[in-house]
Structures are given as structure tokens and as C-alpha cells.
Amino acid sequence: MSFSVATELSPPVVSADAPTAAVASRADLAPIRSQSESSGLTKPFYLALLVLILAAAIGLRVYPSSSFKGVGFDENLYRIYVEQLNGAGLLAYPDIVENYLRVQGGMESAILPPTRFLYIFLSSLWSRSFGVAPLSALHAVSCIFSILTVVLGAAFALRLGGRKASLGVAALLACAPVQIHMAQHALIDGFFAFWGLLALWALWECLQAPTQSWWSGIYAGALALMVLTKENAAFIYFALLGVLALCWKCRYGQVTPRLLLLTVAGPLLGTVLLLFLAGGVENLVGVYRLLVAKAYTLEYAIKTGDGPWHRYLVDLLLANPLILLLAIGAACRLRWREPADRPSLYLVAFIVCSYALMCNVKYGMNLRYATAWDFPLCFLAFTQLSHWTALWPWSRPRAKGWLLLAIVVVVGLCELRQYRVLFVEHPLYELVSEGLLRALRILK
After folding, report:
1. In Å, how far are 157, 165, 334 from 36, measured between CA atoms?
2. How many CB atoms lie within 10 A of CB 107?
């Protein structure tokens, strides 16, 4: 078996006023949804538009529009792992991990590990179920979960801001350039972003209604599945801890001992499952020890994965300028004590906490990892557009609604044009700064 070189790196506090805070939080959020739903957007019309948006999202992701037709470093490794799992079976997964340890130990640079189990397992399951090649199965899983991210984003936005927000955010997510790119290739980052978004939504619901046991189960399960997907789960997990601390401090919902227990139990469950899959503590620790040690010697990562703390802002501005600028504008006008701003503040807190961690990883910055921010940025961008249309002098809500629709369409078309420039006219695969600058003809 041969490997290609990969390029990835990869005290509980309870408020005494928590029950009162939770009731207040749910009461504060009610007007946000009711205002949206009383603005003339009926349920049948909403569902019809949502179906059209999802159909467009599916078409953009299924149609092979990317100019890059080769097999990337990461894709080749995932294909090898799927082939091994297909041949040896799930019970032999510790052997796959041990083989990785032998190969990685003799190499000078890092390759991605087989502990990214969930992506590999679902791709293997798809390959065996439908009789397709491992690489095709990997592509299918990436595409499906990119579509599911749009569905999940629409549902989460519906809970946060009502029907208009659901449609607007779904439309922006459907046209997001990096999301479409993730669907076109066997890359794990879009798949991982789905589970991170599910955990973020489930945490919000647990804060608003801590007695709903099924949301508690979804929250713990999403955390466990993140751990089984990628080592970057540590960034999302600690970001969620930061969000929890902020929600407790500002009384955004109810932080209960049960919620804190779930926040520990979910990742612990994922870690225990990984221990069994890896064949024990020694193997699992060895995988991450080698990954960290070898990552600092990978020439490609040294050349492309470093930079100042604001590198992600630069890359996001290159790849998706309108969404980033609109989101920054929305964040700048938020008010801490305004109930209607609490959903946006929740998402801003998640971005800030995760950004603070991700921008400090030496040789480990890549725009692909920023897919975890796609939903928060799109939601903030939509709230900014909604805010602008609300200031329009027209008094008729229907006219403002059509204006908002027109602006969202224009922004979505601009996103699609950006995708065309980066990934159709230019065969961009790795989302590093130099590649983005050359695709945009800033560097020639």
C-alpha cells in the first residue's frame, strides 16, 4: 500500500436565575418569528419557494462544474482508507490504524489519519450498497452532506428568524462558492461543517428549552459524531464552550447542570468509540502525536498554511466578499440588550470563539476549514439585508418583501459568479491565498 502526502493539519456554572432567564429568552424570541410570519409569507408560499431553492442547491452541487478533474492528495488517501475498509471490514479497523502508524512513522511529513472514521465509514457503506468505486462514493457523501447543510441551515434559520430568514439564508447557502466546491470533491470539510452546524443548533435549542430530552440527545450525539469525523472537532467544541460561557453570563437561555454534563458526555462518547476503532489508547494517542509532530515538517503546509491572525478574513474576502462585508456590517450594529439581536449575537460569539482558536494554528490555516462559518455568515448577511429593506420609505410590507427578495437574488448571483471565476474559469482545488489571488487575477 502506498500513501500520497496530504496537506491537512489538523468550572461548571449555573445561574441562580436560570429558569427566569430561560422563560424570558423564549418570550423575547417569539416576536422575531411572529413578525416574519405575519408579513404576508404564507406557509404554502414559503414551502414552494423553499423547494425551488433546494432544487437549485441540488443542481449546483450535483452538476460537475468544477474545472479541476484530478484526484487531490487528501482524496487519494480517503480512497485508500475506503478500499481498505471495504476489503477488511469494520472489525479490522484497528489494523488500518496500525498500518497508518507504521507508514506515518517512516515518513518525514504528515498524512491525514484514518481516525476520520465517520466520513470513511459512510463512504464505504455507500460504495458497498450501490456498487460504486470508493472515490465516487466519497464524492457522493460530500455532495449529499453539502445539500443537507442547506436544508439544516434553512431549518435553523426558521427557528432563529422566521420564514423570511429561512428562505434568505437557504438561498445564500445554496450559492456559497466554497460549499459548492466541497460538494464537487471528496473533501471532508463540508461534511464536518454539517455536524458542527447541527451541534450549534442543538445547543441553541437546549438553551431555550432545557427540558426537551430529544434536543439534548441530538446535541450530545452531534458532539460525538464531530469527534468521529475530524480532529478539528476540538476547535468547534471549545468554541461552543465559549458560547456557553457567554450565554450564562448574559442570561441567553438556561445553562443547567444537565446541559453541562451533556457537553462533556458527547465528546467523551466519541472518544471512547474512537478508542475501540483505533485498537486502544496507545494507538489513538500515537496517531495524534505523529500527526502533530509531522505536520510542522510538511513543506506545502509551511509554504501555504501560515500567516497573520487576519488571514481568514483576507481569504473570505477573496472567496465570498459580499457575504463577509454584509456579515461584518450586521455584527457592528448588534446591541447586547436587544432581544431581537440575540440569535445574531449567539452566532457572532461562535464565530469569534472558533476564529480565535483557528487563526493560531501554525501551518494549519486553510479556507476549507472556514466552512464551519458559512451558516453564521449567511444568517448575519441576511439580517443586514433585511435591516436595509426595513429602512426603505415604502410603507407596504409586501413591497419591502419583494425588494428583499430581489436583493437576495442579486447577492446569490454574485456568489455564483465568484464560484465561476474561482472554480470554473480557474481550476482551483486547494483554497490557499496564493491560488485565490491568482484566480482573481490579483497575482499573475
Report:
1. 12, 8, 19
2. 14
Q: Which residues contact 332 (CB under 8 A, 6 or more apart)?
A: none
C-alpha span between 40 and 38 (Å, rounded) = 6
* Dihedral angle sign, alpha carbons of residues 328, 307, 246, 259: positive
Burial code of 13-44, b = ≥16 C-beta within 10 A, e = fewer? Answer: eebeebeebbebbeeebeebbeebbeeebeee
What are the extents of the domains in the chain? Answer: 18-439
Which H/E stretch holds residue 25?
helix 18-37
So what's the pLDDT on residue 14? 34
Name 19's Cβ contacts closer than 8 Å, sequence gap at least 6: 254
| Helix, strand or coil, per DSSP, at residue 361 | coil
Cell of 71: 484526484
pTM over 0.70: yes
Give me 259's grid cell: 446541559
* pLDDT tens-place string over residues 333-378: 998 888 889 999 999 999 999 999 999 988 889 999 999 999 999 9
Looking at residue 21, its amino acid is: A
Contact 441, 435 (CB under 8 A): no
Q: How far apart are CA 203 and CA 183, in angstroms?
A: 26
Q: Which residues contact 127 (CB under 8 A, 6 or more apart)?
A: 82, 86, 133, 134, 136, 137
H helix count then E strand count, the chain: 20, 0
Measure the CA–CA gap between 125 and 398, rounded to whole angstroms.
48
Contact between residue 323 and residue 172 where contact means Cβ atoms under 8 Å apart:
yes
